[in-house]
Structures are given as structure tokens and as C-alpha cells.
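The freezer alarm interrupted the setup, so I double-checked each line after restarting. Inputs confirmed:
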Amino acid sequence: MHGGVPLVIPTLYWREGDHVYLHGSAVSRMLEAARGATVCVTVTQLDALVLTRSAFHHSVNYRSAVLLGRPEEVTDPEEKAARLRAFMEGLMPGRWDILRPVKPKELKATRLLRLPIDEASAKIRSGPPADDTADLDWPAWGGLIPIETRLGRPQPDEHALPGLTPPKARKPRAAR
Amino acid sequence: MHGGVPLVIPTLYWREGDHVYLHGSAVSRMLEAARGATVCVTVTQLDALVLTRSAFHHSVNYRSAVLLGRPEEVTDPEEKAARLRAFMEGLMPGRWDILRPVKPKELKATRLLRLPIDEASAKIRSGPPADDTADLDWPAWGGLIPIETRLGRPQPDEHALPGLTPPKARKPRAAR
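Predicted 3D structure, all chains:
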């Protein structure tokens, strides 16, 4: 919330057990506003376009989760480093340990919030199109067109040292 | 907003000129709550993982837009049909005209809101990693790993008539 108006801000997230973690700059206005307030964290994955014989029944297959709660701040530097390490391990296993070690001032410049998974709901559409029976012989194509997200070919920057290979990464998702 | 708490609900959207359109069931609680209230519509596209030599400077490339405003309802049936047609034309050009024609009761069962693009902000990160200069010879791979979204091979449903081909579709994006 900002001046009585809800603001939806994209941010990365990760889950460990019964908590969802959010992080960012220590001066992030979003994290400052979220600390101690009731916030909503929503994650959505689009899976397919759903095509029917009528415009009305067109849809999308998707999975979404809505989480409500009051984030608490994680302030202990060792705990912060452990949680950030877990975030990176989830995306790129093994990478944290080969990086230039994190500095105390970097942990200080990073705010970490965690939200207990207490009140949440999920909404999912899956499966085939749902036409009206009377429309099934209408001559328009019906079915699913999958929506796929994947990681492309890594692009080294100009400083990449010879002999280094990019990590095997997993797909991230942004929450709002 | 729902009982004083902000709720972030995924929904499809489209833009025509200076308006963003949202639609859904006439009994959608989200659309009922959004009508006449100040709402926030956010769209985000993740473009790449950004890998640096330190954990601290890891990031993502992304584009996001945040739109604030008070949605107004479009109630005229012809206007509703024209806007829904434009939505489908944007995703699958030519498809609306080959579908079983929309029925008046279907238009009545669909609520259409439009939000003027008056107050909006965009946030973008693009380009290469931004390491500390002192870290550039640290032996960890640095660069971009692109995140790509694409449409997969269409999957006809069991009612698909022989000889029909699926439409050429464009990628949808969900707003929140």
C-alpha cells in the first residue's frame, strides 16, 4: 500500500519450508512498506491458450497462488547469508560457493523479509477446452496451444575468463 | 482491495490506444471490486538471469509497467463485442470471424472494464552484468542467461474436425 492505494511490484521470491522469502535493497520503498504490513504475494504461471469454437469459452490454462500475511524481517547477518545462499542454490546449484564471498556491507545493504505460509489460495485451470456441446461440430479448430518458458543459450560478458562454463540454471519466476 | 487487504489477482489484459482492458465473468468478485475503485495493474516480463562474480550483483533483466487508475465499465453490447474482438484479433488474427458468433447472453455474462492510461510507470533492467571492477578476474562465469517464452505445438482436442488447422497465435501475458 502506498498512500491508500495498492501497489503491485514485481519481485523475485523463493520458498523454504513454510516461508516465502523476498529480498532487495535495504532502501527499497516496497520492502520498507511491506515490513509489518499485511501484504499479498501472487505467483502465476501461464500454461496454455485454450481455444474453443466460440469466443466465449476461450480461456487459458494456468496455475496461480495467492498468499496473504505480514512479512517479518530477517536481520541476523549469518541467517541472511544462509537464506540468500539457499535462494541461489535453488536457481543455480553450486554457484554460491564459487563466487567472490559475500561482504558484511553487502548483507547490510540487502533487506530480507519472510512471510509465513499461513493464509493462501491456489487457482488452477488445466485440461482440454470446454465447448458447448452444440458447438462441437462448428468448423473452427479447438485445442490447446502450450505456453513454454525456457532458458536460452548463455551469453558470456566481455570479462568472461577462458575455460569457465556457465552454470546449469533453473527457471526463475517473479512474484507480485 | 478486499476487507482492507490488497489482493493481487492474475488476469488477462489487452491494450487499445490509451486504454487497458480487463474482462471476466459478470459475477467475478475481482471485477466487481475493481469497478470504480483505484486499482493497480502490473505487467512484468522476465528477460534474462544476470550472473556476476559476486552474489550481491546478481540480478534479472526485466521490463515491467505499473498502471494506476479507476476502471470504468463498458456496458453497450456492440461496444463490448468490438473490444472482445480486438482482444482476440491481437492474439489470433482472423479467428473471431470464423468462430460460432457470440450470443447476446454471452455478452451479458461477460463484464468488461477499461482503465485509462493516465498514471503509469515503467521499470526496466537491460544490458550486461554490473560487477565491481575488483571482481572482474574472479574465476566465476559472468553473463546473461536469456529467459524465453514461446508457444509450443498446438494440441487438437478430441472433437477437432479433419482438415482444420490451428491459428497462428501470439504470446499472451497476464497482468496482476
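Quick read of the result. The longest strand of chain A covers residues 39-51.
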